[in-house]
Amino acid sequence: MTDDAPHAPVGPLAGVRVIELAGIGPGPFAAMMLADLGADVIRVDRTAPAGFGSLPGDLLNRNRRSLAVDLKSPAGREVVLALVERADALLEGFRPGVAERLGLGPDDCLAVNPRLVYGRMTGWGQQGPLAPTAGHDIDYLALTGALHGIGRAGERPVPPMNLLGDFGGGGMMLALGVLAALHAVGGGTPGQVVDAAIVDGVSVLATQVHALRQIGMWQDPRGVNLLDGGAPFYDTYECADGRYLAVGALEPQFYAELVRLTGFPLPGDEDLDRTDPANWPALRAAWGRLFRTRSRDEWAQLLAGSDACAAPVLDWREAPEHPHLAARGVFVTHDGVTQPAPAPRFSGTPTSVRRPPPQPGEHTDELLAEAGFDAERVAALRAEGAIG
């Protein structure tokens, strides 16, 4: 699907203005979510950007405008506070205390805008023994127990990319927290600070696992449980062509459909009681032998449209071309770049990709003019290096 929507704000957050102090990973993801939903997100980039936060064409930076500001200069601080004065929310992802040292902490910003929602994104949180230390997604998963549970039985834990921590437990939680605080402010409460920490968010995502452990339905060793690859009917299998099929036939009726359509088991193999974990290794081996008799796409075609709960494991290139994802417009092409479409969907306030990722400082003059800075003042700020 091609999405070449105009720049006019659309979506349920149209009319909401957010200031994003440029960072990496979960902060930009939260800002992208808000921008995708229609918020006018202004990204405050560095005057000399570098690193992951300023990769050219980074899709995490889509749907917003950018101005470049030297946050360490008094004039740069003045610029940001002028933007904050007219904003509904601000997002920052610095280590604890950095924003305060820049004169852009919660107290500074709420002083000029008492109704502001101030969203903070960190890995460890604003308080606690580890708060001032560095860390990455894998460290936060390790400490929460989540990393312990990901991997094959008897093998070392496997990092699940940075989807679970940075984006699920981090950026998504920050976006949710900011929306909740905006709702509260709209109901008459004062502005407030949202402290989103990846360790908090990942722990919340694992609530069901903690519940299952407490009632004796989840074992601590990895790779031996119903949903972690322990069950042979919830796993991936290599096919004849070296590609993989995902099987998720948890319920008895879905498993029965999988058995019926595939002709399981092969001659010489036994269809053992799947409810007994003692049979899982033998069942997995039998299913493995069966799935290696056909290619991935042959199995996918045979099982398509059924309740067998099986799907081909697609790679990044294949996913946008799958008929179901194409029919739903899960991916869109904007300015020649194929990318995930905004989600979720809204019946009355549709969302879209409106702008490509901006160059740092691309809209500096435009945004300063909107904030009330005249041309002479803008020129003076640029001359002293406060803006790019």
Task: Tell me about this structure.
The structure is a single chain. By secondary structure, the protein is an alpha/beta fold. It folds into 2 domains: 17-205 and 343-383, Rossmann fold, CATH 3.40.50; 234-324, formyl-coa transferase, domain 3. It has helices spanning 26-36, 74-85, 98-101, 106-112, 137-144, 163-186, 198-205, 207-214, 252-262, 280-291, 296-303, 323-328, 364-370, 375-383; strands at residues 17-21, 40-45, 64-68, 89-92, 117-122, 192-197, 234-238, 244-248, 310-312, 331-334, 337-340. The strands form 3 sheets. A 6-stranded parallel β-sheet has the order 3-2-1-4-5-6, with helices on both faces. Strands 7-8-9 form a 3-stranded antiparallel β-sheet, with helices on one face. Strands 10-11 form a two-stranded antiparallel ribbon. The longest helix is centred in the middle third of the chain and has 24 residues, at 163-186. The two termini are 36 Å apart. The model has no long low-confidence stretch (mean pLDDT 96).
